[in-house]
């Protein structure tokens, strides 16, 4: 598991390609497997652990949460608006 993998999964959710339940299921499985890139265990565990709780009402998943997770992964989130 790498930062890129986690960022892509979160991006898939924000693009509507993965449901919240799908993202949470993926995160729970990823934590169970815990095969993190060497030297990145802490940051990946923090982000994936947070995603695994996103379906709990008291935690949720806000845009600010997503932006902060991307920042911690070394990326910046950008929004593009397109016609529906």
Please give the largest β-sheet: none
Number of domains: 1
Cα-based radius of gyration, to the nearest Å: 13 Å
Structural class: mainly alpha
What sort of overall outline do the alpha carbons produce when their principal axes are compared?
Answer: globular
Separate helix tally = 4
Q: Order of helices and strands, N to C?
A: HHHH
Count of individual beta strands: 0
| Helix content, binned percent | 55-70%
Q: Report mean pLDDT, rounded to a whole number.
A: 94
Low-confidence stretches: none
How far is it from the N-terminal to the C-terminal residue, by CA? 34 Å
Strand content: under 5%
Description:
With 84 residues, the chain is mostly helical. The protein has one domain. The protein is built from 4 helices and no strands. The longest helix has 14 residues. It is globular. The mean pLDDT is 94.
List keywords for this structure.
57% helix, 84 residues, mainly alpha, 0% strand, globular
